[in-house]
Amino acid sequence: MAQESGFPAMVNDRLLRAARGEEVDQVPVWVMRQAGRYLPEFREVRAKHDFFTMCQTPSLSCQVTLQPLNRFPLDAAIIFSDILVIPQALGMEVEMRPGEGPVFPSPLHGPEDLSRLAPPGDACTKLQYVFDALTLTRKELKGKATLIGFSGAPWTIMAYMIEGKGSKTMSNAKGWLYKHAEASHRLLKIITEATIHYLVGQVKAGAQVLQVFESHAEHLGPQLFRDFALPYLKQICDQVKEQGEAAWPPRHSNDVLADSVSQRGVTMP
Ligand SMILES: Cc1c2[nH]c(c1CCC(=O)O)Cc1[nH]c(c(CCC(=O)O)c1C)Cc1[nH]c(c(CCC(=O)O)c1C)Cc1[nH]c(c(CCC(=O)O)c1C)C2
């Protein structure tokens, strides 16, 4: 509540209202990757800065987050960042290579590599820049749109940490689930713990809606999804609701948080 009162009053709360199941005058609209390379003004900023430098510089992250809203009457702004800041905060190197996308120069090869990871409780201290970008953006939005924070879901993040880049099959990461089931659960627990701290921190910093992207759910059949994805998504939902409540007005809390977990992702107002 205290955090909420520090921000401008909402002028357009269409997305928040829809998320709570309340009536809206129009369907709220925002776009996947609404900040990005299709915008000349984004390319101009991007030409001068490395992708992760933009994420790590709150003024730049805020600037490109707001760019699409200056052009289109969107109902939400999604903070400019990437799901791969969690592996970075856990101590892994990630580069954004032009034309190639994200690349981990030293991905996880086997269970012994888990010892390379930083403790998940410490990871969030390295992500203060995301919290600062959210707080700045929420103020700059002046209540004209809802601010969305996000993270990757544990299986999706695990898949990148093992594959080291995008993959059509995720065969190495899937191989872990069969060959190293215990180590897979250990890794998923580390990512889950870091993600819970991270999402609660985002709410405290001013995020009003959270998206958890399970982008690589399609690589898991129903049983693997039930064993290696769903329990961690559920834990994130339960604990972020519980811990996020301290930073959230009561009427925005449990009753409006989504109860169901879909394969593509979870949206939690
Ligand atoms: C929500 C978000 C994401 N990335 C970016 C944003 C914020 C910007 C916005 O949506 O407006 C910036 C964001 N992230 C990226 C870009 C382009 C990079 C550039 O400008 O150089 C932008 C604008 C780079 C990126 N980052 C990622 C990829 C896919 C790699 C692969 O599997 O082959 C890529 C290409 C990982 C990533 N990143 C994200 C997901 C989940 C959503 C989805 O399923 O697409 C995933 C899987 C999420």
TrEMBL record:
GO CC annotations, alphabetized: cytosol
EC number(s) per entry: 4.1.1.37
Subcellular location: Cytoplasm, Cytosol
Catalytic reaction list: uroporphyrinogen I + 4 H(+) = coproporphyrinogen I + 4 CO2; uroporphyrinogen III + 4 H(+) = coproporphyrinogen III + 4 CO2
Single Gene Ontology BP annotation: heme biosynthetic process
Domain Uroporphyrinogen decarboxylase (URO-D), residue spans: 28-37, 148-164
Superkingdom of origin: Eukaryota
One protein family per Pfam: URO-D
Statement: the UniProt record of this protein carries the keyword S-adenosyl-L-methionine: no
EC top class, as a word: lyase
Lineage of origin: Eukaryota, Metazoa, Ecdysozoa, Arthropoda, Crustacea
Natural source organism: Scylla paramamosain
GO molecular function terms attached to this record: uroporphyrinogen decarboxylase activity
Subunit structure: Homodimer.
Cited function: Catalyzes the sequential decarboxylation of the four acetate side chains of uroporphyrinogen to form coproporphyrinogen and participates in the fifth step in the heme biosynthetic pathway. Isomer I or isomer III of uroporphyrinogen may serve as substrate, but only coproporphyrinogen III can ultimately be converted to heme. In vitro also decarboxylates pentacarboxylate porphyrinogen I.
Record bears the keyword Nuclease: no
Pathway: Porphyrin-containing compound metabolism; protoporphyrin-IX biosynthesis; coproporphyrinogen-III from 5-aminolevulinate: step 4/4
Keywords: Cytoplasm, Decarboxylase, Lyase, Porphyrin biosynthesis
Chief location bin: cytoplasm
Homology family: Belongs to the uroporphyrinogen decarboxylase family.
Name this polypeptide is given: Uroporphyrinogen decarboxylase
